[in-house]
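We were asked to recover a plausible sequence for a given structure. The inputs and outputs are reproduced exactly as logged, with field labels preserved.

PROBLEM: sequence recovery
POSITIONS: 286
GIVEN STRUCTURE:
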């Protein structure tokens, strides 16, 4: 049985201790499109170690930066085929700017299992603290497993973000490059879905697609640069639901509304009649 709900729900995940350096941060930033203008001082804060700042989205990849094997969906009570799994949503909260280099201890759990009938949704929560116990960041994510529903669990509830019924305050355009996924996979996500045409076809795609977390990181950077003057320290939270795919080389359009709760975002692909990519997205500034 791929999912054993009695064993999985609430189960603690193996503790992970990891470290990172400025070089890891630089690689991640290049993977999400930093440095397009290599003489822009704001871009160099992402792409040059002098006065380096860290995008908060780096926290999601930091624990697995050294991974060189395809990821496995092997959790307590859960064993899934990688080709059946898609990222559902991702969020991160940070109490302050992330350090350029450091050491973290990640502790997580399976917070929820949702039975959608034809699919399952697996929700994980993680806290990362430094060796002294100070919180560095907290994350919550879900994966959508096609064909793995029917285990008798609750359907769960959907968390939707209302988009204001007015024109967006800002519209941002973010180009991706044909080789974007091949760069980003060096940040520790070697899922062949993003590099191997045959594997992508088995998963139901015409060609390898861009990592959802790459799109997620690129949009965060675009909003920080476009609305927060490139100051990554002003971000306290960021979340989004992955509603569609991006093919490397396509251009993203992100519409932004300023609200009392932060910046509400909707990201689409211009090249495919504004096909939806990120929904229920909010970036919370300080």
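RECOVERED SEQUENCE:
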């Amino acid at each position: 049985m791929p999912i054993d709900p009695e064993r999985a729900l609430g189960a603690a995940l193996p503790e992970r201790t990891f470290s990172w350096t400025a070089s890891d941060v630089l690689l991640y930033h290049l993977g999400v499109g930093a440095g397009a203008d290599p003489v822009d001082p704001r871009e160099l804060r992402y792409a040059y170690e002098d006065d380096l700042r860290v995008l908060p989205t780096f926290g999601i990849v930091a624990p697995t930066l050294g991974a060189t094997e395809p990821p496995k969906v092997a959790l307590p009570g859960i064993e899934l085929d990688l080709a059946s799994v898609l990222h559902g949503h991702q969020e991160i909260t940070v109490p302050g700017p992330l350090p350029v280099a450091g050491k973290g201890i990640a502790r997580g759990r399976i917070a929820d299992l949702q039975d959608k009938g034809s699919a399952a949704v697996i929700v994980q929560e993680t806290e990362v603290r430094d060796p002294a116990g100070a919180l560095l960041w907290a994350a919550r994510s879900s994966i959508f497993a096609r064909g793995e529903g029917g285990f008798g669990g609750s359907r769960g509830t959907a968390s939707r973000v209302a988009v204001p019924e007015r024109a967006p305050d800002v519209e941002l355009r973010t180009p991706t490059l044909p080789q974007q996924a091949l760069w980003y996979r060096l940040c520790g996500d070697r899922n062949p879905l993003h590099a191997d045409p045959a594997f992508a076809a088995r998963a139901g795609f015409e060609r390898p697609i861009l990592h959802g977390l790459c799109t997620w990181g690129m949009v965060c950077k675009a909003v920080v640069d476009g609305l927060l003057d490139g100051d990554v320290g002003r971000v306290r939270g960021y979340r989004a639901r992955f509603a569609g795919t991006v093919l490397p080389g396509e251009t993203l359009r992100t519409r932004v509304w300023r609200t009392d709760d932060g910046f509400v975002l909707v990201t689409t692909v211009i090249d495919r009649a504004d096909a939806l990519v990120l929904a229920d997205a909010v970036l919370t500034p300080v």
